[in-house]
Design a protein that fits this description.
about 100 residues; alpha/beta; Oxidized Rhodanese, domain 1; five-stranded parallel beta sheet; 4 helices; globular; GlpE_sulfurtransferase; Rhodanese-like_dom
Length: about 100
């Protein structure tokens, strides 16, 4: 049965930092210019407006944006597409780890 208000699992940026040691898929759903301005090294840029075209091999996907709003929308859509999407609470605003600029 389809639930309109599906619960999206959420983790903190600290938990994300711990999980980056493993081989996880991290999608950054911000715009390409925001992404170039600074992103988590392992993050793959896949803007929210193109989320429907996402075709990842792994079922579990971590999703981040600037504040956590767009990533939540993207996570909901990914869940509808059959992925186990985990939203990163607070997004890049709360990220304490290192970032890199450029592509």
């Amino acid at each position: 049965m389809f639930h309109l208000f599906q619960k999206i699992p959420t983790i903190s940026t600290q938990k994300l930092a711990e999980r980056l040691n493993q081989s996880i898929v991290l999608l950054d759903v911000r715009t390409p210019s925001e992404y170039r301005g600074g992103h988590i090294t392992q993050a793959i840029n896949h803007p929210l407006n193109k989320i429907d075209s996402y075709q990842g091999k792994k079922k579990e996907v971590y999703v981040i944006c600037q504040s956590g709003m767009r990533s939540k929308q993207a996570a909901k859509r990914l869940k509808q597409m059959g992925y186990e999407a985990i939203n990163i609470q607070g997004g890049m605003n709360r990220w304490q780890g290192s970032t890199r600029g450029g592509k």
